[in-house]
Design brief:
Length: 515
């Protein structure tokens, strides 16, 4: 559905993101959600802000992926009890976002079926809301252990396996409660939020330019995507136009981040299916890739290379030639490894028909990014809502239909080769010019949105800043919010030993959805 078809007066935002924002009433809030859901458009993010010192109200925002851009609707919530209409009846993915809004702001989704705490974990009292502007950060309180009411499954022979939150490996903490019969999984329920870091509170009062460093640390494997989305939001809020060369360099950095993650995941997936050879070879390729990142850009993971107004790096001709050369080398080796993966009977036996997410389920529950493309939903912002230079690069969207581990592996391979092509093309066609512009000073408060297709899925950053160049509110949204619930469905009917393989095939972020 197009923004104009909603009947709302969307104010277009400046910047590279095609976006509009409109203030709505409670009735319009629900009607817009229902209309977008009926049209098959995704809910991208839902978050809240405390504006009582400016407008006398809290505000809840919902961003939808309209056919012609990003539609952001804002609902003022004034007067106790602070409530707004529940959206989970239209978008199941809204459930956890709404629970997080209550834990942080004390603004409740009226009519929601699930109101269990999501982020709090008993770390602060139920009547303390850390994102309120009058929250006392120096307040001390006793921590009380809370009993989380997991959904139970009853029946003959059914028992539970609790896994985590602390794991044997080096992954971040998350709790997985399996209900099983024998080895078959009947139900999986996740509980996340153990790595809550207070990032959204930390943003408050930071200089807008400095906020990019914090955004780039929301989820370390997606530092480029978050930094770019943050920079886009800052540029939209301040009306900053960035140099063309900087646009192309940002895309080059993003594609290098995509390649690094796909190389790592392809090795790990081979290892989870008992092909240690795959882990060894892809780890070697990833290490080579990261070393060239450090050589050319000064950081293995490319942190702090994207800044508001442009980029902080400008590779010369020799460096660009080195990048093109490496793309050819990595592609040659990765194609040999793909043939090995495709022809390995034991590997394919583990991959095929394991962890299936059907296209219908993916659409209904809002699956996004790489996992959605593996389930037949060929959505990619680099094509659907391209910013420069993607509008000139003719990106080929990788997709599959079976929705199993094999499909998610195939999409990774296809995206790897396409990213290598894009990097070589960008390095060859990179326009001359400056790489950074200064952010203009604001005459009043500013609001901006940034929306980028990261390697895992679309990353959104919403930024509110004041005329002094300080951040009032910054919300960073990870695609894992949408995709974690689909993992619960993907594992149903599979055996418990296949869970690590299914989990790795999604490779979702614990940290990115826990700010």
């Amino acid at each position: 559905m197009r923004l104009s078809e909603t009947g709302l007066d969307f104010r277009p935002l400046a910047g590279a993101t095609r976006a509009g924002v409109a203030q709505v009433s409670a009735g319009q809030w629900s009607a817009v959600a229902q209309a977008f859901a009926r049209a098959g458009d995704r809910l991208v993010a839902l978050w809240g802000a405390d504006r009582r010192d400016r407008s006398g109200a809290f505000v809840v925002h919902a961003a939808y992926a309209a056919s012609d851009g990003l539609a952001c609707v804002s609902l003022p919530v004034a007067g106790e009890p602070y409530e707004y209409p529940d959206l989970s009846k239209y978008y199941p993915a809204a459930n956890r976002m709404q629970r997080a809004v209550f834990d942080l702001l004390g603004v409740r989704a009226r009519g929601a079926d699930d109101e269990r705490p999501w982020l709090r974990h008993g770390a602060w009292p139920a009547d303390f809301f850390p994102l309120r502007r009058d929250a006392d950060g120096a307040r001390t309180f006793a921590i009380e252990q809370e009993r989380y009411p997991f959904v139970t499954v009853a029946g003959d022979g059914v028992h539970e396996i609790p896994v985590g939150p602390i794991h044997a490996g080096i992954i971040e903490p998350g709790h997985f409660r399996f209900s099983i019969v024998g080895e078959k999984v009947l139900r999986l329920e996740e509980r996340l939020g153990y790595v809550h870091k207070g990032i959204e509170k930390r943003f408050e009062g930071m200089a807008v330019v400095e906020g990019a460093r914090l955004a780039g640390r929301v989820s370390g494997d997606s530092t480029v995507a978050y930094a770019w989305a943050y920079a886009m939001a800052a540029e939209a809020a301040t009306g900053c136009a960035i140099p063309l060369r900087a646009c192309w360099l940002r895309a080059l950095l993003l594609e290098r981040e995509r390649v690094a993650n796909h190389l790592g995941d392809l090795g790990a997936l081979g290892n989870d299916a008992a092909l240690a050879f795959g882990l060894a070879q892809f780890s070697r390729l990833r290490e080579q890739w990261l070393r060239v990142n450090a050589e050319v850009f000064g950081h293995r993971l490319l942190m702090d290379r994207i800044v508001p107004g442009g980029v902080a790096v400008d590779p010369d001709g020799a460096a660009l030639a080195r990048l093109r050369q490496q793309c050819g080398e990595i592609e040659q080796e990765a194609r040999v490894l793909r043939a090995i993966y495709d022809e390995h009977a034991g590997l394919q036996d583990r991959f095929q028909t394991t962890g299936i997410v059907t296209t219908e389920l993916a659409r209904r529950l809002g699956l996004c990014g790489l996992a959605a493309r593996a389930s037949g939903i060929a959505r990619d912002l680099r094509v659907d809502s391209p910013c420069k230079p993607y509008d000139e690069l003719a990106v080929a969207v990788a997709s599959a239909k079976t929705g199993d581990v094999a499909a998610r592996v195939a999409v990774r391979f296809d995206e790897l080769f396409e990213s290598l092509r894009l990097i070589a093309a960008i390095a060859e066609r990179l326009p001359a010019g400056e790489v950074r512009a200064e952010l203009p000073r604001l005459a009043a408060d500013g609001f901006g949105l940034g929306w980028i297709e990261g390697w895992r899925g679309d990353v959104l950053v919403a930024l509110e800043c004041d005329a002094d160049g300080r951040v009032r509110r910054c919300h960073c949204h990870d695609p894992s919010w949408q995709n974690w619930p689909l993992l619960e469905h993907a594992v149903i009917g599979n055996i418990v030993p296949d869970f690590p393989l299914i989990n790795k095939s999604f490779n979702l972020s614990y940290s990115g959805q826990d700010l």
